[in-house]
Amino acid sequence: MPDLLSVFLHLLLLFKLVAPVTFRHHRYDDLVRTLYKVQNECPSVTRVYSIGRSVEGRHLYVLEFSDHPGIHEPLEPEVKYVANMHGNEALGRELMLQLSEFLCEEFQNRNQRVVRLIQDTRIHILPSMNPDGYEVAAAQGPNKLGYLVGRNNANGVDLNRNFPDLNTYIYYNEKSGGPNHHLPLPDNWKSQMQDFNYLHTNCFDITLELSCNKFPPQEELQREWLGNREALIQFLEEVHQGIKGMVLDENHNNLANAVISVSGINHDVTSGDHGDYFRLLLPGTYTVTAKAPGFDPQTETVTVGPAEPTLVNFYLKRSIPQVSSVGRAPSRRHGAGAKVQPQAARKKEMEMRQLRRGPA
């Protein structure tokens, strides 16, 4: 009898692992239950958190996958999936829920590809950026003719055409100190999230349209999932392509907001609070420079391979301040200041000696 019970439990567990996921559209309450179900099934590598509320008060829930949920680990890149910005475009929303369940199940099954992905990457999945618009579209149903019903949020705003103007004065003075004007071509005057993220953050963002049918009937969802599953996994893996590393000072202290430049590419990235940086690059050889205010820049030649990221750490030396010569007054043309007094000169000389001597 115990043996029979053991076989029964084994079959029950096996059935649970291979049981097909239900392919259907998820209203808001169903979506929330699904996210917390995944968290309950994989508590060691998931976390549900909210980034705020919609106009009508619905939480914008994100599901995180990481071997240390809630923590940024230095040198571990982060990647996000955002779906359902237009409430009536429902396929991405459903694919994100399917992906969430898939990652959890495959992690439990010890699928080494998924295990490695979760251990080396911090993944954030926002299935619905516009839950209010979705509820309007879902009430109409997938077979109705209201093509734009539910597209906007409850304030009538198109969320993917509402990011800040790409050429306004508030971006003229950035921490990078470099030119940042963007002159969009006629086909991208849309104030989209991908343009904003690329120009003003360290995020490389693309927008993918997955279906000609904005709100496909549920019998098509399984086919769409099977057609997109591999691409969704590969896209997450691509975050590891390129170079990454730490920017430190001579005493191995982290340097945040250091600028990482690649020769020939007019787009910089900056180091984070922990001093780590990430730069997506295709295979090839590059000249990379790290610089920070008050430090001498450092340049390295880097070869990027097709698989693993190349680790490139920078150790920046503090700049030696230039001291004006003593004993001769500077020219007063163009409003030059008064000459350096001997006492001030001695003080500067002492500071220079201290800098050369290094910290006590």
Automatic annotation (TrEMBL):
Q: Which residues form the signal peptide?
A: 1-20
Q: Segment Disordered: which positions?
A: 325-360
Active site annotated at which positions? E209 (proton donor/acceptor)
| Gene Ontology MF annotations | metallocarboxypeptidase activity; zinc ion binding
Under the heading SUPFAM superfamilies, the entry gives: Carboxypeptidase regulatory domain-like (SSF49464), Zn-dependent exopeptidases (SSF53187)
Recorded hits in InterPro entries, A to Z, give: CarboxyPept-like_regulatory, CARBOXYPEPT_ZN_1, Peptidase_M14, Peptidase_M14_domain
The portions of this protein that span the membrane are: none
Q: Supply the name of the protein.
A: Carboxypeptidase N subunit 1
GO CC, one annotated term: extracellular space
Q: Which GO terms describe its biological process?
A: peptide metabolic process; protein processing
Q: Which residues form the Peptidase M14 domain?
A: 24-239
Q: Which UniProt keywords apply?
A: Glycoprotein, Signal
Q: Which family does it belong to?
A: Belongs to the peptidase M14 family.
In Pfam terms, one family for this protein is Peptidase_M14
KW Glycoprotein (keyword) present: yes
